[in-house]
């Protein structure tokens, strides 16, 4: 969620070609997309406390905790991916839509909020969904911060009672169930909010 | 040249020595045009002659490179802080309708009055329905643009522009994207609007329409105004070779 909102902002910065910021954002997105998530998690866990410590002036690392690290990292990491999706979506909107907004004297804010972004989100929703399902599966990576997620819990149980195969099968089924339920849910949402008469 | 423009009526648009370039291509070269309040002007000319560019400069969708444009007493320039102050008073209808596909017909008409003019939802709805009735499409108010025919969509686009209660309406080839049988319903709507006294600048090749409502026909070619006259004179006795060629091509 945080990633989606932040990603939309990043995409808009690039779309408007904001002088310096636009380039920075492009660099950020390229960087985030070229390194593995697991590495980013490590960096945040070990580096950010040190940086915070320096900023705080005490020189001692300020621990931010594994859970917060996970949240922040996922937010920042996913923002890069979502921003690419939204950026492409923005380019897909017909120029005439922008001109119609100009001709009606709509402010830039209203243009994007009421006209452009609703269209972008509708077009991009299947890709946003698949990215979100990937994110859900990636949450298992938090084991590197000794956090326990679904998969982590299952493997702990498996080691306790020695039934590795069964536990991993069960957990695979759970992932499958949740992911396909999400797909179903979005498909029905799409049907409900489909724009009548609009051919894509 | 200016005998028709310089009446005792106040002018709403004044264009002086307008120049517009796209890269090395000069789209408009030293164009002068005055539109009086209540006047109906038809702009015609071969494609690429700069007529669309000219009206797109009037509401600053295209930014001009030199010359002056004054709309409703406000000069358009890059430095101006409130271009929307001008655009509020200038309605525009596009060749490709440009309705908002995700909003219903009535919502298309309500959006700008609510956001820009600050109307309440109830007032905006009332105004929208009133104008949709005027263009005879109020029975489709809750449909989406994709469910309507081209002619119906263009009439919605006209109603959407009118909902802002503009002082002048610009039409950029409003019937060029329509199937032949739908051209008439849009032209009828425009004729009605003209008879209500709206100030209009229309880019169109519909010469019957020009004859019926235009106070003045302006003929453009290669970025300049070549000839202007009242429709009778223009169609019966065009003064320039280029206008004669053009008329020969479009009137079979």
Write the layout of secondary structure elements.
The complex is a heterodimer of chains A (200) and B (252).
Chain A: H1 2-15, H2 19-34, H3 37-56, H4 66-92, H5 95-103, H6 108-138, H7 150-161, H8 164-193
Helix pairs in contact in A: 1-2, 1-4, 2-4, 3-4, 4-6, 6-8, 7-8
Chain B: E1 11-22, E2 25-36, E3 40-44, H1 51-58, E4 66-71, E5 74-75, H2 83-87, E6 90-93, H3 105-115, H4 121-134, H5 150-162, E7 168-172, H6 180-195, E8 199-203, H7 207-213, E9 216-221, E10 224-229, H8 231-236, H9 241-250
Parallel strand pairs in B: 3-8, 3-9, 6-7, 7-8
Antiparallel strand pairs in B: 1-2, 1-4, 4-5, 9-10
Could you walk me through the main structural features you see in this protein, from its secondary elements to its overall organization?
The complex is a heterodimer of chains A (200) and B (252). Chain A is flat and about 70 Å long. The two termini of chain A are 26 Å apart. By secondary structure, chain A is an all-alpha fold. Chain A has helices spanning 2-15, 19-34, 37-56, 66-92, 95-103, 108-138, 150-161, 164-193. Chain B has 252 residues and is α/β, with parallel strands linked by helices. Chain B has a domain at 11-97 and 168-249: P-loop containing nucleotide triphosphate hydrolases (Rossmann fold), CATH 3.40.50. Chain B is 36% helix and 25% strand. Chain B has helices at residues 51-58, 83-87, 105-115, 121-134, 150-162, 180-195, 207-213, 231-236, 241-250; strands at 11-22, 25-36, 40-44, 66-71, 74-75, 90-93, 168-172, 199-203, 216-221, 224-229. The longest helix of chain B has 16 residues, at 180-195. The model of chain B is unreliable at 1-8 (pLDDT under 50). Chains A and B meet through helix 5 and helix 6 of A and strand 6 and helix 3 of B.
Got a strand count of chain B?
10
In CATH, the architecture of the largest domain in chain A is Orthogonal Bundle
Chain-averaged pLDDT of chain B: 91
By CATH, the topology of the largest domain in chain A is: MetI-like fold
Structural class of chain B: alpha/beta
Rg measurement of chain B, Å: 18 Å
CATH 4th-level superfamily of the domain at 11-97 and 168-249 in chain B:
P-loop containing nucleotide triphosphate hydrolases
